[in-house]
Structures are given as C-alpha cells and as structure tokens.
Design brief:
The longest helix has 19 residues, at about 55-70. Helix 5 links the parallel strand 3 (about 100-105) and strand 4 (about 125-130). The chain is about 35% helix and about 15% strand. The protein is globular and about 70 Å long. Helix 2 (about 30-50) packs antiparallel against helix 8 (about 270-285) and helix 3 packs across helix 8. The mean pLDDT is about 95. It is of the alpha/beta class and about 375 residues long.
C-alpha cells in the first residue's frame, strides 16, 4: 500500500514547529482542521449569530455521522457529551441497580473509570471488584474468571498507565457469553487504534476528543448500542431529550428513540464541529494506517531505550502494544520530565514512570531529539 505524505500530515499540526510533542495520551494538540472549524464557527456566531443556524445544524449532523464511522456504529447510536466522565456517568447513573450487583473494573484504570462505579457502591450497594494485572497485562482469561454472575465490566481500551491494549473483541465475546454488559473508556484508543463496537460487542463507549482524536477539549462522543437504549435511562433531563425538542410551547415528555435522548440541552456546537473536522482528517489518512505508523515509532523507541539505561514498563508483545510507552529511569524521573519540558520536549510522568506517546504526525527526528535528551540525562 502506498504511504501517505507524512510531511504533509505533520504540517496539519503547527505545534511541531515549536515542540517535540510526545504527549498525545495526555492532551494532544488540535489539528489545523479542528482549529479551522472552531474558528469558522466563532466567526459565524460573531457576524451572524443564529441567523444561519441551519448550516451549523447540518455540520452537527455530519459530525455525528463521522463519529459513527470512526467506531463502526450507526449515527443514531452516537450522542455528544462533555467528556469521557460524562459518558461513563450516564451509564452508571442510567442503569437500574440493586444491592449486590457486581461491577468489574481492572486495575491501572484512569479515575474516570473508577469513581462512577464506587459512587454506586456507596449509594446503591453494588459491589465493585478490581481485576488485578499480572506482569503488566490483564488478558481475556484473567477477566473471564471474574465474569460469571457479574452485571457489568468497564475497562479502558488502552491503559493510560502502562499502555496495555485490551483485545476488545475477545473480551466482548466473553461478556456476551456470560451475559455481562460491556462498557469501554475509549479515550486512549480512538483516533490511534481501530475500534469496531459491533465486532467487539461493546454496549457502551465514551471518549473525549482531546487526545488521539486531536479535537478540542470538553467535547466527546458516547456510543450506546441501540438494543441497550431501553435499559439506559437518561440521567440528565432537559428540553433536548424529547421526541420533539423544538416544539417549545408543547410539553410532551416522550424520549427520543435514538442516542439523542442522552443530550439534555444546548449542544457545544463549536466543539462538535471541531471534533468532526479532526476526525475527517484522520479518517482521510485511515486509522489502520495511522495505527501502523504509531506502532513503528513506538517500536523504535522501545528498542533504543534499554541501551540508555531505561527500563520499558509497557507490554510490547504483539497486539498488547499501543501508542503509549511507559519507561523508568530512576528516582529523578519526575525532575527529568520537567527538564525535558524546558527543552521543548513534551512527555508525561504517570504512575511513577515517564511516558511518551507519539502520534502519526511525529517522526524519527522527534524520537532522535527525545533519545538524545535521555542520553544526556541518563540514569546514574
């Protein structure tokens, strides 16, 4: 397959002119496409207000279709939410729970996928069980041992802490086999790793757009399998959840029959248009192609870190790999990250380790710069 023009793709991310930006698992830079869409929306509101709102509404419809295409869903199964936490909370607060219901959550989860379930333990008497990692991994067989009798499993497609990538299709098959609802925090995968909600038999998925999707902060997508909508009641109610939201003078409380039932009020129009534009740019290249590029970059990084005295903590066998490389130097790693920032190299410090997360706009020159810095600041 012919390769994209990666230099042209890189030019869509002007942040690369100033920084060696390797923190896309934290907050990624917005793409030029996303920023242009947000600016256009702001100019529209500045000069026209809502006089031409039908054009903006058409953009929202298209963005919903784009989000659906990204995850292999129908547009009617996509709602726009404020962030990942918002989507996961819709699941936690929208299902009917009874005391003793078991919710499974692996270790090494970001707090957004822990606190909503712990809140249910406190308020509803459910039981939240943590599934331990073994040697940095939580494979399907480790999960299946806990599934019998559980109500819901919620996990991240990729662990923010060490970059372990779940086999979503295998886990989804197991959940279906045991009659367990499957909820996914997709923020560390969407935009960088192909995700097919139908193939993986995912019931619910939430992800903010500000990481690998390169969209603006404060706007995310929420997928609900159509067959699960009757089970998931909207936990936030406003004028927009209902079947005829624009009939303001008529009170008719009938919920919409699509995922719009989870959108309670005025949408974040600028954010939606920005996310839609960002995803169109990524889909034009192809998520499979982007994923291969990211793996090539991370494979190189992983191969060269040990010679500099760093220990790679991320699982890197086959399908376990992701765009996150977690690695350890010594007790000065936090200070090392701060020095890297001063040098214009943007990485992160998570879970007591350094973390680099290159996107497809990064290149070998970025890795050369990071590795040269780490060589000059190698562990004692």
């Amino acid at each position: 397959m012919p390769q994209p023009d990666w230099s042209a793709f890189r030019a869509q991310f002007p942040v690369t002119e100033r920084y060696c930006y390797l923190n896309n698992a934290g907050v990624a830079p917005m793409s030029l496409a996303a920023a242009t869409a947000v600016r256009s929306w702001a100019d529209e509101m500045l000069h026209h207000g809502a006089a031409r709102y039908s054009q903006l509404y058409a953009g929202i419809v298209q963005a919903r279709r784009t989000c659906a295409r990204l995850v292999g869903a129908a547009p009617e199964e996509i709602a726009f939410v404020a962030n990942t936490s918002d989507g996961l909370s819709l699941v936690a607060n929208g299902l009917e729970w009874k005391p003793g219901d078991r919710i499974l959550v692996p270790d090494l989860e970001f707090p957004a996928n822990v606190y909503p379930w712990l809140s249910l333990a406190e308020r509803k008497g459910v039981v939240v069980e943590r599934i331990p990692f073994v040697d940095g991994r939580c494979p399907p067989e480790q999960i299946e041992a806990r599934l019998p009798g559980a109500r819901l499993l919620s996990l991240s497609a990729v662990s923010f802490a060490n970059g372990f990538r779940y086999d979503l299709a295998a886990v989804g098959d197991l959940c279906r086999k045991h009659g367990v609802l499957f909820c996914v925090d997709g923020i560390q995968a969407l935009g960088a790793i192909p995700v097919d909600v139908r193939r993986a038999k995912i019931d619910f998925l939430a992800a903010d757009g500000h990481k690998w999707m390169t969209g603006p902060e404060g706007l995310g997508l929420f997928y609900v399998a159509r067959e699960r909508m009757p089970e998931l009641y909207p936990s936030k109610i406003g004028w927009s959840n209902v079947a005829n939201p624009l009939e303001f003078s008529t009170i008719d409380f009938r919920l919409r029959d699509d995922a719009g039932r989870y959108e309670e009020g005025t949408p974040n129009v600028g954010g939606i248009l920005g996310l839609g534009a960002a995803l169109e740019a990524l889909l034009a290249v192809g998520i499979e192609t982007i994923h291969a590029r990211i793996l090539a970059l991370t494979d190189r990084l992983v191969s060269e870190l040990p010679a500099l005295g760093y220990r790679v903590r991320s699982p890197r066998a086959g399908a376990d790999r992701s765009g996150i490389v977690s690695f350890l130097g010594d007790a000065d790693d936090a200070a090392r990250m701060a020095k890297a920032s001063e040098a214009g190299i943007v990485i992160a410090y998570r879970g007591g380790a350094l973390r680099a997360s290159p996107h497809a706009f990064n290149d070998d020159a970025d890795l050369d710069r990071l590795l040269a810095f780490l060589r000059d600041h190698r562990p004692v």
